[in-house]
Amino acid sequence: MKKIRLSSLIKHGVAVALLLALAPAARPIIDSAAHNASINKAIGVAAKGTPEEMVLAAIDAIREGRYKDAEATLDQLLTAEPNYRLAHLLRADLYAMRAMPLNSIGGGSKGPTDRLEDLRQEALVRIKRRTSPPPANALPANVLVFSSKQKYAVVVDTSVSRLFLFENQGGTPKLVRDHYVTIGKLGAQKVREGDQRTPLGVYFVTSHMPRSQLDKTYGAQADLYGVGAWPISYPNEWDKREGRTGHGIWLHGSPAQTYARAPQASNGCVVLTNPEMSQVAEHLQIGSTPVVITEKLEWLPQQEWQQRKEKALAKIESWRSAWEKLDTTTYLGHYGQQFRSEDGQDLASWQSQKTSVNSSKQWAKIQLEELSIFSSGGTAPMLVTSFGQDYKSNNLNNNMKKRLYWKQENGDWRIVWEGAANKGA
């Protein structure tokens, strides 16, 4: 049988469910000593790999007709993670293939069709990560400026069910690790309470609910959250301005009876395996760590990323400078037609108020501290700028945490919401 490349299958939309059908129907006759050596090598590799690497190695072995290697890898994986359902499914298929060829992952198992399809989709998502890794030396457009207090940033790409953790290395985001995640049953773009969707936008980790606290609060239902939960700031200021409802969107672990959940299985939360949630949690700072949830993470060459960062910084500096110079016309030119203040003022009302206020000023001094800039990305991108604002003038002194939301209007960024930062650095 002609060998077909996995990348070609995915490119042409062939389901991962057909991988097992591509394996040769008959096992090749080979030297037993060499085959045993191959098995031992597979076990050694498996012992060193992550569960994801091991399950992918098993799928590769099945596709190539190396059944013993696949069995050895899966046995080693299930010893370490006995509740890994996808690994159990593949192991059952290997047993079934001794009697007959299979035409799908799960073809050797009897069970609810929807659960088998969930496991097939998990396999597909994990394979896509391996075949389409992040571009080498590229940087995330969603993370432009860290404040000095922010050591890490989280970006969740809902299109590939993947969480990326970036470290602040002198102001430049460096990819530390990435993990498979589960999102809402009905996908992304949360609008209302109970819609079983994961929100899109820029959020911040607001607290930590350890398992002991969850047990006291939820009893037996606490097992749904695994090792613990890290709530994020949904709904944020823009969500509220848009009338979006709902609450309780968390990063959290998985139930004890399963190592990983399906790509779309939560009520809107972002769910990791318990070991991986614990790893990510080591880098989460309460009140500081941004969690950008986007429909697709945008990767940029380093030079293009630097240019986008400098343009964003220049835009907010232009706003600050015009305000400080009492250049009311230039200052108000930074606001878009969709603008609303936290008090509900529209653009006309805002322009009238600021014109009146600035006319009473003799001088002003404005400093922005701990500035951060993150982008929601997607088809309707927004810039979210957060900072400490130190305002001084001849008749007013004020210090506050502030947030501006910017959207593209006529090819330029314009402020569409301004007010106090409710949560997050």
Describe it.
This protein has 425 residues and is an alpha+beta fold. It has twelve helices and 19 strands. It has helices spanning 6-11, 32-48, 51-63, 67-80, 85-96, 113-131, 211-218, 237-241, 274-281, 302-324, 328-332, 347-359; strands at residues 138-140, 143-145, 152-157, 162-169, 172-180, 183-184, 201-204, 209-210, 228-231, 250-252, 264-266, 270-271, 290-294, 299-301, 335-341, 364-375, 382-393, 397-409, 412-420. It has a six-stranded mixed beta sheet. Helix 4 (67-80) packs antiparallel against helix 5 (85-96). The chain is elongated. The termini are far apart. Residues 1-47 have low confidence and may be disordered.
Q: Which features does this protein show?
A:
single chain, 425 residues, alpha+beta, six-stranded mixed β-sheet, 19 strands, disordered N terminus
Describe what is shown at a glance.
The chain has 425 residues and is α+β, with helices and mostly antiparallel strands. The chain is 34% helix and 26% strand. Strand 18 (397-409) and strand 19 (412-420) form a beta hairpin.
Mean pLDDT: 88
Estimated structural class: alpha+beta
What is the straight-line distance between the termini? Answer: 58 Å
Which overall shape is indicated by the principal axes computed on the Cα atoms?
elongated
Count of DSSP H/I helices = 12
